[in-house]
Each structure stands twice: as C-alpha cells, then as structure tokens.
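Why do we bother with a discrete structure alphabet at all? Because it lets us treat a fold like text: something you can write down, compare, and reason about line by line. To make this less abstract, here is a complete entry for DUF58 domain-containing protein. Read it the way you would read a sentence in a foreign language you are learning: slowly, and without expecting to understand everything at once.
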Amino acid sequence: MRLTRRGWIVVAVVLGAVALSWQFGPRALNAVVVPLVVVLLAGLLTIGRVNRPRVTRQPVPEGFIGEQRRVELTIETDRPVAATVRDTVGDGLAAATDPVAKTTLEGDETFTYDVRLEERGEHRVGPLSITVEDVVGLVERRFEDEVTTSVLVYPRVRELGRGPAADVQLLASVADRHAHDEFDHLREYRRGDPLREIHWKSAAKRPDDDLVVTEYADGEEAGAVTVVAECLTDRDGEMASAAATVATDLLERGATVGLVLPDGRRPPGSGRAHHRELLGMLAVAGPGTLGEQTRRNADVVVRTETDGTTVVIDDQEIPFDRLRGRDRAERTDKPSERSGSDDRTDYDTGDSPGVTV
C-alpha cells in the first residue's frame, strides 16, 4: 500500500498548512488540514481492508499465425473498489485491443481483450496486476496474480495448388496408395464371401482349383501414411510449416496420417481432433535429427537444412518452395501485383485449412 501522486500532494499541503498555522493561528489549520487528514486516513483504512481479488482465467483457443484470440478473465472482489487492471502479453503475441482497463470491481467482473498470434509456438498471457484505489485517489494498493494462460500458435499451412502438377501428384499418390486396406493373404472361398473379393487372376491361372478370396490387413496402422520431419539448423519454423502443409494435404485427401519428430511421435489417425494434435506437436517442434531406419520406413520425409527444406517421396527430393509454387509465383507475378510479404499467404490468417481445426 502506498500513496499516489495525489496523496503526496495532500501530504505536502497538510505540512504546508501546519507551517502556516504557526504564523496565522490554529484556525487556518482546522480549515485546511483536518479535512485533508480525515480523507487521507479514510483512504488508508479503506484500501487496507481490501482483500486480494480472486482471478479466474479462461482457456485461450489455439490458432494460426495472424489470427486473433479473445483473452477472458473473471475478477471477484468482496466489496466495490476502483481499480486499474493490467495484463501482460508475452512474446510471440501482440495486443490487438488494450490489455489495460480502469473500472470498478464489484462482485464478479469480466475483463477481456484480444491478442494477435504473431509467432509459432506456445506463448503465455499474464501475470495480471490489479491496482486498487480509494474513492479520492490518494491511496493505492497493488495485487499481483502470477497465474498465466498458454496460447498455442500453429505453424503456417501453405497452399499447394500452385506447385507443379507432377510434384503435387506425387504427394497425392502417397494418399491414394494407402486409401484402401493393405493386402494380407489369399484364402479359400467360403459361402457368403462377397464376389468382389474373389481373386479372379488366381482363378484364371488355376481354373481347376477352388476359388480364393483376398484378405486385408486389420489394425489402426494398416494403410497409414507416416510423415517424418527433421531440422538440421535453427530454422525449425520452416520445417514445422512444411510438415504441417504435407500432413494437412494428406488428411484432406482422406489418408490416415502419423507423424514422427525428433522430440515425439503421434500414431496414425484422421479427423479434426487428430489434425489438431499434429498441428500442436509441430507448434512446439524444435530442431533435431532422426535415425536412418526411421527415415527409411517413412512414406514422406521433410528435411530442413541450411540450404532449404525438401520433401522426399519415393527417393525423389522436391524442394518445398517448388512444391508450394513459390518459385513459379516469383517468376510470373509482377512486384506490384504481389500481396506484400510472402509470409502472409495461404492459411496464415482467417480460415483454417480444409481439415477444420
């Protein structure tokens, strides 16, 4: 608890009045000093009785770079009190609206503001400071709430429609080849088996033998696409963006996608929740390398080195910039027709990618 600037002015006035009272008598002291002292003491008593406000933070939804998210807090007090509420916006985020408010706290009050997602990663908002004042503004007391809320920012997901058709088709073929159940073995035909599962090529080769039908592999990972990503430099944001783009494209094509990173892995899956899990992993992915066997077993390898990022499919290396059509755009677009920075394209702002997040 401390005096505000206004409070110190009151103290100076009181001291000055006391000094003048020695020359002009105690009547001047009563007329000026007593009311000010009463107000100052009342402020000290009022603010001294204020209990620490109770703060409850609501979760902040994750999002993509360039999007905005609402930060919401509930502040509970035992008695009405004038206050200045100030929240801290961490690195990687920017305040879209003012995180400072002067208000009167009474009961449960909701404090909200918006932040803009600036960088990939897990960022934080908070801690919160609440400065309460007496009615006249002579005395203030500051409370700090150290609780913070995490804000997860996904990597950029690029649009692949502008890349060369051969490159895009090669990536699409990965999803197509795993779109159906994988072949396991042949067995003898039994009554009730669907005719479409009869292996007619075997029947044609051995017309005197019994018919056989195709059995397919079971299990969640049958027909799954495995994407692995590694970064040999400090450009892990570029690696995360490339891996997120590839995984999103494969999921949109109906594939079941698993992800392997140097610091973690996610088993194959599909759907909105699984897509969010993959993006969440890539939001916090750092540099690192994977073993040779892991790369060999993968369907798609995303690799970032000092000279750029490549996507490897069936031993064919495709520069990621070429896959997303960046080279073509730089050759064909006039400078006046391009929309500023290349980092603000595709899924950077606004809508989420095709697999709804």
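What the structure line is telling us, in plain words: Residues 165-179+219-344 form one domain. The chain has four domains: 2-48, 54-154, 165-179+219-344, 185-216.
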